[in-house]
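Researcher: Before we compare anything, I want clean individual predictions. No alignment, no superposition, just each chain on its own. First chain goes here; please echo the sequence and then give the structure tokens.
Model: Echoing the first chain and its structure:
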Amino acid sequence: MAGTKIVCTIGPASSSEEQMRALIRAGMSVARLNFSHGSMDTHREWVRRLRRIAAEEGAPLCIMQDLSGPKVRIGHFSEGRVFLSPGQPFSLTDESITGSISGVQVDIEDLAGLARGCERLMLADGMIELRVTGISGRTVQTEVVVGGYLSDRKGIAFPGRALPIDPLTEKDIADLQVGIEEDVDYIALSFVRGRHDMDELRRRVDAAGSRAGLIAKLERPEALDDLDGILDASDGVMVARGDLGIEMAPEEVPLAQKRIIREATRAGKYVITATQMLESMIHNSWPTRAEASDVANAVLDGTDAVMLSGETATGDNPVRVVEMMRRIIVATEGSRELRRPERRRDLSEDGNEYLAIAWAAVEMAEMTGAKAIVAYTESGTTARLVSKRRPDVPVIGMTQDPRVLRQINLGRNIVPDLVTDVKGLDSLLRVVDKRVMELGQAAEDDKVIVVAGLTMGADWKTNVIKLHRVGSLD
């Protein structure tokens, strides 16, 4: 079993009932719906299909809505895509045209003004590079420097330029309503620039009465300047390396990734590492050795989840990709190279009681040889914080709330478990005795650590930690 979770992007290649079921069985913990592509009706249908299949499989599948955010995209080509060759001219315009080999529309007002002063433009996650050669009226003339296939609705970046776009576009607001109505578990916002962007999203989500968690996608350098604020305003972050690698030098991205994972761990927030992890497997049967190392290093750094994009959305064999990613994760997690480097002095020193109890639970588990840590949670916080301390034993995330069950499935090494009839500590311990044995995580007379967030009149929730011997209540 892989402790690090796998996020799969659902697309044309993985939207059938057969493929969704196979992906869940192969190791998909989180299904990502990319609202940059597809219609609202399509996404509604996919959410409902995923929910039904997950229920049939008995899987606590988490569903994440990924909003487009303030990303500039090109329009559509008459044939769906074109091949650009180095040295050829290619024009961009904000006028309404159908794309061809000679040019395409860009979906933003005053394209010429935004491009003025830019030496280069990057498309399709940096895979295609254009050199600006001139501007005439509403048209930007360019020459292809790095070519390749360019398809409908790919993103375009203006390195070094701040985009004059609100954090939530009109499309995002409409899409957000779909996600809330379909009761998605997480909502991810693209191109977050600072805490204020996440605060705006939180305001809208709370106003709608939704309990969805919020994920900040880190794709712009200015986001790293306000990383603490973004972490404080979010339930988790995503290292979106595609666009991040366009906006900053490629050699800076690996260190940025390590910093984000480290700071998210310290703050007790989920972190997803994304983009081009097994890119070659979109069409190939095997990953490159560099890709395998990339996945392994993200696991060693402490990421909660690794994400597949085109590999599962449009790839030739989505299930094989998930199986390969799981193999890499399991091999890495079983290695002696994986150590829990964190020490108490490295934690945030803000007097956070939740972090202190989570830390104590992990230390107690290691010192006593406990077989598992049971984190009973009403909101998901208890399980998340224990998971972020990177224990060497499984974290059984027990909850009575089906939504929380799905949300904690994003957490590394968390085994979600839906329970009933927990009304206090005594009843919880009886449920623990029964479930840890049924799950095969512990046997009678084994020790487990129980951490609980129980409502017992305290102002703060994570308020119980206990060393428990399975079966001792009898």
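Researcher: Okay. Second chain, same rules.
Model: Second chain and its structure:
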Amino acid sequence: MDNLLFTLKEKLRDPKNLALACIALGLVLGLLIGYVLLPVKWTDASAANLRPDLRVEWLRNAITTYTLTNDSVRAKAAYSELGNTANATLSDLVKNPAYLNSEQINRFTTAVGSASPANTDNGASGSQVTITPTEETEGGSNTKLLGFLFLFLLVAGGAAAYYFFFRNKAGGQRAPLDDVAARPLPATNVSSPAPQTAAVPNTSATPMRSGSAYANPPLSSTARPAVPQAKPAPEPRPEPAPAKDYGKPIAQFMTTYMYGDDLYDELYSFASPNGEFLGECGASISSSQGNSEPRKVNALEVWLFDKNDVQTITKVMMAGDAFEDTNLRSMLERKGEPVDVQLGRHYDLDTATLHLEAKVVDLAYGALTSQAKGYFQRFTLELAIYKKS
């Protein structure tokens, strides 16, 4: 059951699958509401809602009743029940009068205020009936109103799903990545320059003038000439430790932060090949400069959760100028290890059984007036998860 729920959750992370699921759920709910919970009930429906043959029968009975009673009020009421189908029904009746004759039909049409009908099969003649309906049927309008209501709910649900699920995930859509081998930084070998020995001037050949700035001090028989000391050679940078080989990653993700995405917060779950849940990783906003909108984000945090470990490992990736701010860096140390972001660099996070390799594949800054690397304009990370043996 857990594996099924995990698989379903992973499938729904795809926007296309989530949209299809929302549409299917909306249709099911609409059918359930329309046919089970709130079915359409017809009460006091007019004759206009009958089948065409039953409408003709209705009109035929109305003409017969009028012939017997001569009640024009009831005749008009019966005819108005047909609504906008009255003309068509009367034309069908003229073509198939059955037991009625032309005189009965003419008297009825005169009573309801219409012209004489067309020729009947009995040989009577007259003009085509033209009657304006006096009452609209309500059943059809109610059905249309209900249909528009369900359509509105479906569109509103889709818009809400886009706003809450897709709008803030557009920049962090996962994509399969190629395996990227870790490349250590090139080391700089600095050789120590040979010390230079200054030549001792021959004081016996050139007389010294007292008080001259260029005069060499007198040398005693036991004193040694002053030799300028050579500057100590800078220590060479230590060679980076070779990257450990963890084999093939069990999961890979790509996430992108874009300037203006103030709700940027990505979370990815991953499992072993047999479906066992192993942990989660993600990236989110850690710090921003000032209170302006959109936020000028100058630090993002990347984290790794291992179900077999008691703590979550976090690294705070700071913009170049923000990293130089000692106070900000010390404040962000509470969240995790601050690092200076550089394009192409790898940053490692390790837990008890997992290893995360985060590589900066795209980086662009939004320059401030006094800081060329003040905040992130665009920041893309590759996240590769490895399981330690």
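Researcher: What stands out in the second chain?
Model: Strands lie at 251-258, 265-271, 277-289, 296-306, 313-318, 337-340, 346-350, 354-366, 375-387. Additionally, The chain has nine helices and nine strands.
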